[in-house]
Amino acid sequence: MEALLAGAALLADPMAIAALVGGVLLGVVIGVLPGLGPAVGVSLALPLTIGMDQVPAITLLLGIYAGSIYGGSVTAILINTPGTPSSAASCLDGYPMARKGRVGEALGIAALASVAGGILSLLILAFAAPTIAQWALNFGPAEMLALVLFSLTCIASVSAGNQLKGLLAALFGLFLAVVGQDVFSGEVRFDFGVFELAAGLSLVPLLVGLFALSEVFWRMGDPARSAGTGALPSGFAFPRLGMVRRLAPTILKSGVIGTLIGVLPGVGPTAASFVSYAEARRASKTPEDFGKGAPEGLAASEAANNAVTGGALVPTLALGVPGDPITAIMLGALVIQDIVPGPRLFTQHADLVAALLLGLLIINLLMLPIAKYFAFLWRRLLSLPDALLMAGVVILIGVGIFTLNNSVLDLVTALVAGLVGYALRRAGYPLAPIIIGFVLGKLLEQNLRMGLIVFQGDWTRFAASPIAAGFLALTLGFLLWPPARRLWRKRSTKGTD
Q: What is the DSSP pairing of strand 180-181 with strand 188-189?
């Protein structure tokens, strides 16, 4: 209790309050702009923290981190353009809800799920950070490979209309993941003589091109689709009590999944959101509604990707091991502020940890009023003529992507991805499996080859540990369950004839 009171006193400093509120507002704006995202926001704010005190500096970065991840859901819902990679799964059901005139409801569900997921991960961080961090240390190449293979099963959930086309799209994403220099041998692969491709393809231009630019091309080629998004939102609408009760199990489960995946270095919120989406669809009594505007799909994605923020802080604070690229930047901020992460941080500087946890709690709670009172901007956005709206999207995409790395190649990548995405959509191929394959492809290759080196080519050792064996068993179960269920139904039908 003394540490909690001392932390509250540190957080009561006007500078800390200003940094906290300003960080959330800035984060939401950065998240809404396609192509920027939390990594860019935290990087730009890092120099500003050099002359600040410890608590204001860290709360500023935490506000940008959490706010930008939520902000990415806004454009995902409104115009099928994920503001951040972690919001890609939110397009699958958020945008169909908007097309049906349920924009306010979709924004409310996204905000509520984001806050609930963030608070849940915060509670886990507060009570179990050292224990979970030690558990994460047990993940070697075999365990990570098994987790990646399990995560790839979510391709089936986002390819419900055509499993074969979904599989082909995922294979295309896996191919894109291996473009560039091999980290083990140094050999450049599939660069086609283009020197800039030696560094590989970037996720953000690929993601924005596939989803956002393909949407622009789709509307240009289909006048009926250019009629608008649907009924304009009357305002931000919090979900009713009945809807909250309906979504509560999905949010709780997705928050736990997002937190645990966030703990593991290198996996990140994009994978967490798709895995949670797949689990929500698997557990749903109406899985056929997913992809057509199911509130559970949107809630699962947003609860998971916001829970990653707290999960990624677990190894960062408890062990000094960043959980994702954003927390790697924040680890640098901790060092600048003479904060040494590790188990002793929770005992020797309990007041500082309490201040950061309380700050993260307030940051998550602040997102609700910000989401509500900024809704008038989204209404005005949707009231624009469709041609003007799409032109604005293209400009934002161009500025955001070029700002990311000052790279013309990123602009070309986004344009080509947009054209490919449009062609694939015309042919009936789902786009989400491409992103899943691309995100998980690098982890798959790295951990497979690293494991083969460590295990000296012995494949059996990939299933030797209990954690790896458990994930492999889950993967096998997920793959075998659908055909087994269909076979059981056929036999049951024959038995009744």
A: antiparallel
Write phi, then psi, for 180 (nearest 5 degrees): 115, -165
Q: How many CB atoms lie within 10 A of CB 365?
A: 14
What's the farthest any 2 CA atoms get from each other in the chain?
A: 79
391-425 pLDDT, tens digit per residue, is 777 887 787 778 767 788 888 888 998 899 889 88
How many angstroms separate the Cα of 418 from the Cα of each of 82, 211, 393, 409, 425? 14, 7, 13, 14, 10
Domain-wise residue ranges, the chain? 2-496
Q: For residue 189, report the phi and psi dihedrals to the nearest 5 degrees.
A: -120, 140
Q: In whole angstroms, what is the distance from residue 62 CA to residue 56 CA?
A: 10
Among residues 131, 157, 188, 116, the alpha carbon closest in space to that of 364 is found at 116
- Alpha carbon distance 411, 359 (integer Å): 37
pLDDT digits (tens, 9 = 90+) for 119-133: 988 888 777 766 766
